[in-house]
Specification:
Length: 211
């Protein structure tokens, strides 16, 4: 993601690292930003909090082994991963992940978008590529350190009240603005899109004049 501030960014990307579709959207958003000369800001959320508030049906659909739509979605996800050039070894033994620690660590970088982008990319590769434990603090520290960040400092900061409050605030905000999962993408504050499949609409919106 390009360096940006909340005020300048036309795109807000609300996301949770535990979502495979979010990894695909994160990857596929980059060329759209380049083609449209647009900036984006990453907004870490806790998708479980969103589901609990407004989309509890997702839990029942996961448990239904004969759910044709869900079973087909796994196949479509594998196709998307090939198209995007993303290594997607999912699900692993660590699925589903709670992702609380991971998303708090992401929030520690909220004021440094290049660093947050690096950590986000590395965490996605860890969980979905190498099948590492997204809920293990030591794994997350190692992931951050591997891309030149201070994982120990991030882990310490993730335990502060301010960072915990930021994650709650982001999650409550996306719910209040109509979101129901990850990733939820806003163009120019008001035009909401959901998921990897709606990225063409995101690009279409970016090419129109802001409303």
């Amino acid at each position: 993601m390009k360096e940006t501030t909340m005020e300048r960014a036309r795109i807000e990307f609300f996301y949770d690292l535990s979502s495979p579709w979010t990894y695909l959207a994160f990857t596929n958003l980059h060329p759209i930003l380049d083609r449209t000369d647009t900036s984006a800001i990453l907004r870490p959320i806790l998708v479980g909090g969103v589901f609990n508030a407004v989309n509890q049906s997702v839990y029942a659909s996961r448990e239904a082994t004969d759910n044709r739509k869900l079973n087909h979605a796994w196949k479509v996800m594998r196709d998307w991963s090939k198209l995007a050039g993303v290594e997607m070894n999912f699900p692993s033994q660590y699925h589903p992940a709670k992702s609380v620690v991971a998303m708090r660590m992401a929030c520690t970088l909220a004021d440094d978008m290049p660093a947050l982008t690096k950590f986000t990319q590395a965490a996605f590769e860890s969980y979905f590529g190498r099948q590492e434990n997204l809920d293990d603090p030591e794994t997350l520290v190692a992931v951050a350190n591997a891309v030149g960040l201070d994982g120990e400092a991030m882990q310490a900061a993730a335990q502060t009240d301010a960072v915990k409050a930021l994650l709650r605030s982001n999650t409550e905000e996306v719910i209040a603005r109509g979101g129901y999962g990850s990733p939820t993408i806003f163009v120019d504050k008001t035009r909401m899109y959901f998921g990897n499949d709606q990225l063409p609409l995101v690009e279409f919106a970016l090419k129109e004049k802001p409303e």
